[in-house]
Amino acid sequence: MQRFVAACAQGRFAVCAVSNVDEAIALLTGVEAGEADADGNVPEGTINFRVAFALARFSSLRQAYAAAARPRGGSEGGSDDAVPPAGNGNADPE
Fold first, then answer.
1. Is residue 35 part of a domain?
2. For the segment 18-67, what is each residue's pLDDT rounded down to a tens digit?
3. Cys-Cys crosslink for 76: which of 32, 49, 71, 81, Cβ 3.0 to 4.6 Å?
4. Are 76 and 82 in contact (CB under 8 A)?
5. Number of domains in the chain
C-alpha cells in the first residue's frame, strides 16, 4: 500500500473515478467514446464508431459465408444455419 501511495504522490500513478465505460474509454485512449444519436448512429472517429463498423463487417462476413455454404440448387437440402468455412473471418491479412 505504501508503494501505491508513493507512486500517486510522485505523479506516476493516478486514480480516476468514472461513471460509465464510455468515460473510462475516453480517459484511457484519449479518444471520445461517441454517443449514439436518436437513430443509433455514432460520430465518425470515435471508439464506438469503430466498434459499430467492426461489428457490421463481422455480420456481413458471417452472412456471406453462410450464403456461400448453402447448396446452389439440387435436392441436397441445406439450412440458414450453415457452418461457415474454416478461417478467422478476416479478409485483410493485416
1. yes
2. 999 999 999 999 999 999 999 999 999 999 999 999 999 999 999 999 99
3. 71
4. no
5. 1
Rounded CA-CA distance 14/32 in Å is 20
**Residue 92 to residues 37, 47, 61, 67: CA-CA distances in angstroms?**
30, 21, 12, 20
Task: Say if CB 65 and CB 84 are below 8 A apart.
Answer: yes
Q: Which amino acid is at 45?
A: G
List strand residue ranges (DSSP E) for 11-92, in order: none
61 lies in a domain?
yes
Residue 54's alpha-carbon distances to 15, 57, 59, in angstroms, are 31, 5, 9
Q: Structural domain of residue 6, as residue ranges? A: 2-69
Residue 87 resides in a domain: no
